[in-house]
Amino acid sequence: MNEQMKMFIECHVPIKSCNFKCEYCYVTQNGWWKSEKPDFSYCLESIDKAFAKERLGGTCMINLCATGETLLYPEMVEVVHKLLLCGHYVMVVTNGTLTQRFEEIAKFPSELKEHLFFKFSFHYLELLKLKMLDKYFKNVHFVQDNGMSFTVEIRE
């Protein structure tokens, strides 16, 4: 079934912390690596009502992106799950290194995973420095092997 998207919704996730320390990044420049964890309780309670298809007028494309690493906290798995249960398409921007989050998300039913898209930011120098290049690509392949869509995004 071809669903027409009603709208694109860009959601800034209030996570400033990151497991990387890329020298060019504002997280590094501002020393936010270990910022306070955001309070997800209101968000989790409100998603069903706030993102109901009826309220928004139909199916939406929702992009989740944090200032730091979007999947850093375990609660983000539940946020993604709830948005998918609302019937929307969800994109998640990530540095691709948090294997446990991908493993948790891979347990979602296939009909939800078909509406999920990961935007893997390729931070080559940081991946090399942290010896995480293999881990990154294993996670990309894991996502692909588990029926989820993705892009690998390289910036100059």
Helix-strand pattern: EHHHEHEHHEHHE
Question: How would you write the strand order of the largest sheet?
Answer: 1-2-3-4-5
Rg over CA atoms: 16 Å
Overall structural class, as computed from helix and strand content, comes to: alpha/beta
Strand count, sense and barrel status of the largest sheet are:
5 strands, parallel
Multimerization status: single chain
How many angstroms separate the termini? 38 Å
Extended strand count: 5
Structure description:
By secondary structure, this protein is an alpha/beta fold. It has 8 helices and 5 strands, in the order βαααβαβααβααβ. The protein has helices spanning 26-29, 41-50, 53-56, 75-85, 99-105, 110-113, 124-129, 133-145; strands spanning 7-13, 60-66, 89-94, 116-121, 149-153. The protein has a 5-stranded parallel sheet with strand order 1-2-3-4-5, with helices on one face. The N and C termini lie far apart (38 Å). The model has no long low-confidence stretch (mean pLDDT 91).
Task: Summarize the helices and strands and which ones pair or pack.
Layout: E1 7-13, H1 26-29, H2 41-50, H3 53-56, E2 60-66, H4 75-85, E3 89-94, H5 99-105, H6 110-113, E4 116-121, H7 124-129, H8 133-145, E5 149-153
Parallel strand pairs: 1-2, 2-3, 3-4, 4-5
Helix pairs in contact: 2-4
